[in-house]
Amino acid sequence: MAQLFHPSANAIAKVTIFGGAFIVAGLVWAAAELYRSPYVTRAGDPISQPVPFSHKHHVSDDGIDCRYCHTSVENSSFAGLPPTKTCMNCHSILWLDSPMLEPVRKSFQTGEPIHWTRVNYVPQFVFFNHSIHVNKGVGCTTCHGPVGEMPLTWQAETLHMRWCLGCHEHPEKFVRPVGEVFNPDWKPPADQLDRGRKLVEQNHIQKLNDCYTCHR
Amino acid sequence: MRLNPDNFGARLVRLAAFMAAAVLLSGCDLQDMYRQPKTEPYMSSPVFADGTSARPLEADTVARGHLRTNEVFYTGKLNGKEVDALPFPVTKAVLLRGQGRFDIFCSPCHDRAGNGNGMIVQRGYRRPPPYHTPQMRAMALGHFFDVISNGFGVMPDYAAQIPVEDRWAIAAYVRTLQFSQYAPLADVPAGERQKLKEAAK
């Protein structure tokens, strides 16, 4: 019986076995990258809304504080979405005839809330609380990105557990003075690490990275 | 115990199948936990006709312990007449709180000094009167509380956005602003007076 395999098959077999490990590792790496990519997380992807609400205009051009609309952010787990009445505080006079604001006026007349599309979403097995973060010195823009520059709002970060832990393990890299939490233009100073360590001590910021901190 | 090669292979297959099942099943489980059959604030709900999960209060109901019997604290009035004092002691903390809340909710129109030239006014909203006119300075404290709670003229009410205690803190801070524009030079520390005089020139 003739030989089934040419002697060169040995070399091919060796390369295949050796290369197989790299192919598997490469696939795992590619999957992990894809999982973290904006393609999956939708980070950086402006979300269309029934009314093209611009944080850029209201925050940067008009200088309205975050808490004017997100009233419960300091004492509740949820930052709070403004009722249509809050929009109408100004828009009963300003841009009264704008067709863009028709859904706002309709909602105010009928009492039916505007159906906003949610931008930031964490899985429901995560118990996130806004109030503890803003009261300890985690600024809005630390997690939500440059909101004051967003014509349509997008999710700024992956919101993955690895990303949360980045701060939960090293809060000194991110915390700011409590008075700067709602400042949309705050940038970390050059000596952030030194200042951050002092703030961590001053504000009794704990490194809470037990599972049950967020998963209860 | 000696390993039986055939048996070993079979066990390996079983183990691999078990692991694959564990991974796949836990994947399903994760998806279930990801979106749970519960509602979070402002989520929509197919249960109710209006599509919202949050339910409005029934008309004329009061939660236990929330009956507003304290007329002065909740209306700024006593027997229908506006009161001219805070219903709780004024401390520095109250004034600082008032300043913070004023800057958030009032300064868009009234501006941070109370002159009524905030950014929203500059965009075309009707200009509110400055706090520093003789008429405004003569207003009772309860008047400012009442205006925040119920609105006045084109000013909308802020009852939903500002809790009662904060409204009082803001009213106290409005007084502080009024005072700031008429503070006598004698109240300024001696060392600073000269600087002010020079700045005024």
Question: Structural class of the secondary elements of chain B?
Answer: mainly alpha
The amount of helix of chain A comes to 40-55%
Give me the CATH superfamily of the domain at 71-183 in chain B: Cytochrome c-like domain
Q: Element order, helices and strands of chain A?
A: HHHHHHHHHHH
The share of residues in extended strands of chain B comes to: under 5%
Strand order of the largest sheet of chain B: 1-2
Reported CATH architecture of the domain at 71-183 in chain B: Orthogonal Bundle
Total strands of chain A: 0
Helix content of chain B: 40-55%
Q: Could you spell the SSE succession of chain B in H and E letters?
A: HHEEHHHHHHH
Please give a structural write-up.
The complex is a heterodimer of chains A (216) and B (201). Chain A is mainly alpha-helical and 216 residues long. Among the domains of chain A are: 8-36; 73-79 and 119-214, no CATH class. Chain A has 11 helices and no strands. The model of chain A has no long low-confidence stretch (mean pLDDT 93). Chain B is built from 9 helices and 2 strands. Chain B has a domain at 71-183: Orthogonal Bundle (Cytochrome Bc1 Complex, Chain D, domain 2), CATH 1.10.760. Chain B has helices spanning 5-34, 71-75, 92-105, 107-110, 119-122, 134-138, 141-150, 164-180, 190-200; strands spanning 77-78, 81-82. The model of chain B has no long low-confidence stretch (mean pLDDT 88). The interface between A and B is medium-sized, with 25 and 26 residues.
Describe the protein's topology:
The complex is a heterodimer of chains A (216) and B (201).
Chain A (H helix, E strand, L loop, with lengths): L7 H29 L1 H4 L13 H7 L4 H4 L14 H8 L10 H9 L19 H7 L3 H5 L16 H9 L22 H11 L8 H4 L2
Helix pairs in contact in A: 5-6
Chain B lengths: L4 H30 L36 H5 L1 E2 L2 E2 L9 H14 L1 H4 L8 H4 L11 H5 L2 H10 L13 H17 L9 H11 L1
Antiparallel strand pairs in B: 1-2
Helix pairs in contact in B: 3-8, 7-8
